[in-house]
Write a structure and sequence with these properties.
about 350 residues; alpha/beta; Rossmann fold; about 45% helix
């Protein structure tokens, strides 16, 4: 794929060249980026219909916004200069669209963001869709229905992404990740080199550390990846608290063992569970990767039950991974808009919602 040259030191700014670290500029930037996502969502809606959406919330917006900025402004411009092929790996791809209550304007989910927003296109997109009935929504109303998410993911991605690029996988990411790994190996052989960006977006603790390890272990074969991992720290901490209070470990305890890759979480002191969730998970990730760099984007929208982190995990290179500084600028931008009222207002303006979103979040 011919991509041309793009400097590896990307300056994160608005399109007029201004900085994005004060609240007024950050709001304008947030609105513009959301409006672009809405435009993509309308295009997808027009071609594939509105059934089978997942419900979006404020935290949904910010994690997808980070993915959009990272894919467009950092990852694809840089990797295109140093590797003959690029892949996007989406372990929890959903249905392809999110909707917001009281709005008829959906926004795309991660797989379609990677396709539409990349400065240079990915050579392969691997997307894993869940194949069990789930609660879904209609983009044009507040009606709910139960259906298979993978069905809608298939319809939407194959409508826009060429067949020779998209690789759809049906099932549980922990059970099907080997198909992604084999696909990455095939890319390396075909293009004589490959790099990938993995977006790991579980609802809570569904991802096993061993699944991430399998992907990272490809470094031994010369296939390196960047990871954006959503860590629902408060939600996981509350689950651990319930286990400690009831003294009934059951199925959740087994899930947490697989999530952390250790049983050390069982020894967390009661008053410090949330911070220990973050520290232990970061420690476990660092032990998997050679020369790891982990940057955290802390998102706390003044809501008691939601406090999560986006963990950005890469390997330090001989060039010193200079684009980490750009990631830090994006983190400052996300921090500048990390206010409930600002996010609500921008979503409302961009998506045409007149009533406050806080009533259902």
């Amino acid at each position: 794929m011919s991509r041309g040259f793009y400097t590896h030191r990307v300056k994160f700014c608005d399109r007029d060249g201004g900085s994005m670290t004060n609240s007024e500029d950050a709001y304008d930037k947030l609105y513009k980026e959301l409006k672009e996502l809405r435009d993509i969502g309308e295009k997808v809606l027009e071609k594939t219909g509105g059934r089978g959406c997942l419900l979006g919330h404020r935290w949904t917006v910010l994690k997808l916004l980070f993915l959009k900025l990272y894919t467009r402004d950092i990852y694809t411009p840089i990797i295109a200069n140093y590797y003959p092929s690029m892949a996007f790996v989406d372990l929890f791809a959903g249905t392809g669209l999110n909707k917001y209550k009281d709005s008829n304007f959906p926004i795309p989910r991660s797989t379609l963001i990677a396709w539409f927003c990349a400065k240079y296109p990915f050579d392969r997109i691997f997307a894993i869709g869940y194949n069990r009935p789930s609660k879904l929504f209609d983009a044009n109303s507040d009606k709910k229905h139960r259906d298979i998410p993978y069905k809608y993911l298939y319809e939407r991605t194959t409508r826009f992404i060429p067949k020779d690029c998209i690789r759809l996988i049906e099932g549980d990411a922990n059970k099907t990740v080997d198909k992604v790994i084999n696909g990455l190996r095939e890319m390396k052989e075909r293009y004589k080199g490959a790099h990938y960006l993995a977006f790991v977006d579980p609802n809570s603790c569904e991802i096993h550390l061993d699944t991430i390890k399998k992907l990272i272990d490809l470094e031994r074969e010369g296939i390196v990846g960047d990871f954006i991992i959503l860590l629902q720290a408060r939600l996981i901490a509350k689950g651990i608290g319930r286990i400690k209070d009831s003294r009934k470990r059951g199925g959740l305890a087994e899930k947490l063992d697989k999530f952390f890759g250790t049983k050390d979480w069982r020894n967390f002191p009661t008053g410090e569970i949330e911070s220990n969730v973050v520290n232990l998970y970061e420690k476990q990730l660092k032990e998997l990767k050679q020369k790891p760099i982990v940057e955290k984007v802390d998102i706390n929208l003044m809501r008691e039950d939601i406090h999560y982190y986006l963990l950005y995990v890469i390997r330090k290179t001989s060039r010193g991974s200079p684009y980490v500084e750009t990631v830090k600028l994006i983190r400052k931008f996300v921090k500048a808009i990390d206010k409930k009222d600002m996010v609500d207002q921008a979503i409302g303006e961009a998506l045409g919602i007149k009533s406050s979103l806080t009533s259902f979040m």
